[in-house]
## 1
Amino acid sequence: MSEDRVPVLRAAGLVKTHHGEGAPAHAVREVDLGVARGEFVAITGPSGAGKSTLLHLLGGLQRPDAGSIWLDGRCTDSFSEARWAVERRRSIGIVFQFFNLVSNLSVADNVELPALLAGAPPKKARAEREALLAELGLEGKERSLPGELSGGEQQRVALARALVNHPPLLLADEPAGSLDSKGTREVMRLLSRFHGRGQTIVLVTHDARLASAADRVISFFDGRIADDASLDGAPPRRAGISGVLELKD
Ligand SMILES: Nc1ncnc2c1ncn2[C@@H]1O[C@H](COP(=O)(O)OP(=O)(O)OP(=O)(O)O)[C@@H](O)[C@H]1O
């Protein structure tokens, strides 16, 4: 199979049950999923449907009880925690609702850190950081601490950090969930821009309007895929970001 036809991400038979204080929560039940290179997939559904759990499984942040995940055709079944950490540095960028920036590191250091940890020479890490922060409109903020920035700015820093190693896959878990509608539009515009350049994106959101920025929308309900535009023969939907841009402040 040519490299372009190998899915960036494939999951088969994924199962995850959380055991907390109460009854077990069957968050992900027998989920199969393939994401092609360059796709922008939104996973949407009600609170508690299992969306975040699924994304955490796909990024190796949690382990499935059953099922397998392949990254670029490589089976991750035998990956150790350390190996997953390496993958998250090199092949998977992740952005979260609450940014998860290192609060006592400057913006510049937050963005450069994953590049340095992945073995990039400091000069290259710096050049990548400068290019990304410029692209994301954050020049002049390099020396700031995350706490000195607005929510929207912090999420742009988190996006720069996630993309600094040019990962083939970007996972985004409610990246606009703690932002106002201006910040939301900004994040979605940026995701659309990177997708336009070929970035593969899997976005989890409970907001159907945000999901409309993606070209494939998967509805998740009660731990299962209830609907997937690509499964019923519909051509990939390319709704653009019009739905997002219509959001009012
Ligand atoms: N660490 C955990 N321990 C126990 N139960 C959990 C844990 N994480 C999630 N759950 C439960 O698993 C189910 C799925 O949660 P999950 O966060 O994946 O859903 P979600 O669709 O992302 O919801 P939301 O949109 O509210 O973030 C819920 O019933 C939740 O309470």
## 2
Amino acid sequence: MAPPGLHPLSPLPPISGSGGVRVKVEGLSRTFPGNIAVLSGLDLDVAPGSFVALLGPSGCGKSTLLRLVAGLDRAEAGHISFTPTLERTQGERAPIAYVFQDAHLLPWRSVLDNAALPLELTGVSKPERQAAARAVLEQVGLGDATDRFPAELSGGMRMRVSLARALVTHPRLLLLDEPFAALDELTRGRLDDQLRALWRKLGMTVLFVTHSISEAAYLAERAVVLSRRPARVVLDRTLELPGERSASLRTEASFAREARLLNEALEQGERW
Ligand SMILES: Nc1ncnc2c1ncn2[C@@H]1O[C@H](COP(=O)(O)OP(=O)(O)OP(=O)(O)O)[C@@H](O)[C@H]1O
């Protein structure tokens, strides 16, 4: 049985999946002042509904890439396209959602109101947004914490509110930048399981940045290892692991093999 505050995925009200988008990055270049070339002609093609882990040395440009994909920054050269095109259609409010390492919750708002925020910002009525937030909070195992405030939550619970807030818009692309890095290993492992279960249920495309080789191998279908900057692709690998994953996978030879390959690529990327 899961300890208090860390429930397994609830079978309660499903939120409908909106499917994923294909993300195609072509010849992407980004140089920061001081002639810091972070990306230089990067190509990456992410299939709709896939779960891709991005690994690479610190400072190689992983967050920069996510920010560019999210439209939070502009590249000097290159192109990012989404198929189908990420336009807001009726009932689809924010096709891209971004989760950071810090949960960034508003301390004066309840869990429910934090999770409902993206819908409030786009003018969704209170009953409708609260119902949507409740459903997604159930999905992340926080159905009984809707009236609590961020200060009353553990770090893992705060991250789950952050995840719920990202999912409340039914995004077609979910970008996660080391979302569980600050958590203890047990909590992190449980959140990895929840995230993977949500992805399998909802089918959005996921780009997940992590420094953890075992987290990447456990979560993703495909891992892309980048070199130090300017980031180039050292390894682009579809992981030979089962779709159904549980903690015991981490002790299996197939998992150890994938982890070793990722580790070797990371070491190679440091030398490039
Ligand atoms: N706005 C900015 N202005 C100047 N330099 C920047 C800016 N944003 C990022 N950089 C630099 O670009 C490089 C890549 O940063 P980025 O955050 O993308 O790396 P990262 O791979 O995500 O690193 P980490 O794994 O340590 O989080 C770093 O050298 C960073 O200092």
